[in-house]
Amino acid sequence: MSDFALNIPKNHYEDWQLDAAHKHLKNFDIEEHNLVDVLHFFQDTYGYIDKALIPLLAKFFNLSKAEVHGVISFYHDFRDTKPASYILKICQAESCQAMGSRALTAELKAALKIDFHETSKLADITLEPVYCLGNCSCSPNLMINTKIISRLTSEKLNQILTNLREVQDD
Amino acid sequence: MTKIYLPRETTTLSLGVEELISAIEHEAAARGIAIQILRNGSRGAAWLEPLLEIDFNGKRLGYGPVTASQIQSLFEADFLNAGEHELKLGEISDIPWFKQQQRLTFSRCGEIESLSIDEYKKHGGFRGLSAALKSSSKDIINIILDSGLRGRGGAAFPAGIKWQTVADADADSKYIVCNADEGDSGTFSDRLLMEGDSYCLIEGMIIAGIAVGAEHGFIYLRSEYPLTKIILEEALIKARAAGYLGNTIQDSIHNFDIHLHIGAGAYICGEETSLLESLEGKRGQIRFKPPLPALKGLHGKPTVVNNVITLASVPVILAKGAEYYANFGRGKSLGTMPFQLSGNVKHGGLVEISFGLTLREVIENFAGGTYTGKAIGAVQVGGPLGAYFSGKQLDTPLDYESFSAAGGMLGHGGIVVFDDGVDYLEQARFAMEFCSVESCGKCTPCRIGSVRGVEVITRIRTAENQSERSEQYDLLEDLCETMEDASLCAMGGLTPMPVRSAVKLHQLLTERTDETMRPTNES
To answer: At B269, which CATH number?
Structure first.
């Protein structure tokens, strides 16, 4: 544990602004980029897909608003509310189950007093489930923003939560 | 100046390799020693990561698993000159884990600096492409057909036949799509290959393009692999700059370029038609087949959709010949397969071996037992849609036909081990739940059946007596039959495989428990 260091940059997002979004959209070329690419860009920029983007995207891609909404809601990655600075994704798939992820997930939910897809009032954390991070030989796994923490234990989990709370207090 | 190799790879990163590098640089500077740190991929022995290697008189010596706090003692032991230390593993090629493998597709992975084109070429890279550039489309396809290479993504369809179909199709444009949406739990071979030897995949895709007459390739990468994305982007830029992608590649008449597309967290997009929909920017809903993607795929054009490992196996086949490759393996399962050991194992990681060893042999020879030290309960092979095996079933040889005959499938080669504390019924319930979360929703058996499945299995758990319970078992079997027969794709169609196998193991266990509880005549 002495080697366990946690140095994870916070996610920073631009504040949602329709005019700015309009300008961003003009940088895309419909021949080169598809709706999923553009949604990724906006989610990376704003942290979520604002509802006001839907008519804009519909017009840009010559789709109906329903079609755009359908694409957004189909993919687990896209969210419609702004997340916390830290997005915690804990793996729910078989390999991690075999190493105790069910108990760790329960601990995490209890510590943060939230369920999946919610943001904690106790820390700057949004909790999400994920089905496999492809790091199964070192299960169980947890991803914080883009950093994976492997061989997760109860002890490590507590340390992470303490650590993230400290960053928040700074 | 001693060369130090440390992987730039997801697992190693999760185990703190960046902190390790800072510690080494700091210590070397303090001691006034000049070092050169090179970034390779992982060789797949996750239990030895971070695996530090040095180039010592042309030999690769390993130390691992290394943590930052051990750096000082490594310097004190003079590890740069092969000094003795408790972490010293000796020559890499002598380590039994590697010695017992037949690494064809992964031969370079971990050995070379992963983004160096020179290193790639020095270790046999682009020899397959050279051979392909001198061959006709027909010759290339025949070599792939003769090699016996089958799709490594899970469906195991002969790659040569797929290529032939696309090559024969008449169209103004054709596409090569690489399926890198490695969603199966317990699998990471695509990721290891892309992070450690990305040019191998690029080379395989170029050869596929030449063979079928396609000028555009796409890699559909899952969003859960952020490091892989960065590495692939760098590799594509370098390959373009070196004239391996773009127009008139290597001054030939062939044009080929690759675009990287990032998925958005949907397991179903690993299904080829769903992947194509997603690649077009739509909901990843599956398409009816026929028409086959080989005839009407991306944007309605003939498309080869192959998994990463399938495409990455192509260069070695072209470079060394179909016969060389086909001499590995057995029956209709020719060549090698990267199996991935995970879950409750002491030694997890990737091993590339010929088809044919039994599941038990692989677990015993490589995994070294369970992590918890308990007995093995069950092993799920082939991802979340694969069967749970236990007891004598562990003696099933790892080849496509034997596994299918035993009621399972090899899939993408994932082997997830559970110890005997596993709750089989919970695993069966999870298989249904996973299907309900990840179903694309197009067909009813999968979309609704999986939800009903979760409910039925929950009722099996809460049933108050035997007759109530057996009623639910019958209902579950009926549901499984419907899903298997009437689902449009493998998601709903194969979910019954883990469900039935886990339920069977649960029943065996409860019967056994009931029997030991029952007073017998002898006592």
So the answer is: 3.40.50.11540
